[in-house]
Amino acid sequence: MLTMENIVRDGHPMLRKKVSEVAEIDAQTIAELKSMREYLINSQDPELSEKYSLRPGVGLAAPQIGLDKRMLAIYAEDEDGNPEYDYMLINPKVISHSVNETYLPGGEGCLSVDEEIEGIVQRKKRIRVSAETIDGDKIEIKAKGFLAVILQHELDHLNGVMFYDHIDKNEPFEPHDNAQPLE
Ligand code: K2U
Ligand code: NI
Known about the structure:
By secondary structure, the chain is of the alpha+beta class. It has helices spanning about 25-45, 45-50, 145-160; strands at about 60, 70-75, 85-95, 100-105, 125, 125-130, 140-145, 180. The strands form 2 sheets. Strands 1-2-3-6-7 form a 5-stranded antiparallel beta sheet. The protein has a 3-stranded mixed beta sheet with strand order 5-4-8, covered by helices on one side. A hairpin with a 5-residue loop joins strand 6 and strand 7 (about 140-145). The protein is globular. The relative contact order is 0.19.
């Protein structure tokens, strides 16, 4: 199982690389992507996260575990503990997005960044993403709300972008005119 020891930290060159397309969805790739999803599930389990010192995460991109592969996992539960967002995406591409933006009022964090960096991160309010699944099927996701934020955070990782790159140095807490907070 993956633990925090497997997660590369800010400063590692892999986090600033535009990672490579997955040419073949082979058994190793599927196992790696499943282990990323498993990390997210474990990290949200109070006992396992405590036992293995796992920082909770709702998304994880392959470069964060040192893999030069365009793939990501998202796993988030609803208030009843049922899976609300549960995705393993290979070669995801943004097809379209809204002009309007949104942001988490409390800012963002990152499993690859140990310190807290304050400031709001403007994200597109809605995005449409195409991707391949581990079965090789092509899917399309229309995301809004929290899923849109998670997706954009993870897609950024595939392009070597960190969340704090989006924070305005001069006005870190000043939202754009077309941005509404995500409640
Ligand atoms: O990519 C990562 O480092 C995982 C991040 C993704 C993320 C950060 C901010 C906003 C949305 C997604 C971790 O999930 S950060 C921890 C976390 C846990 C629950 C809810 C929000 C953030
Ligand atoms: Ni991150």
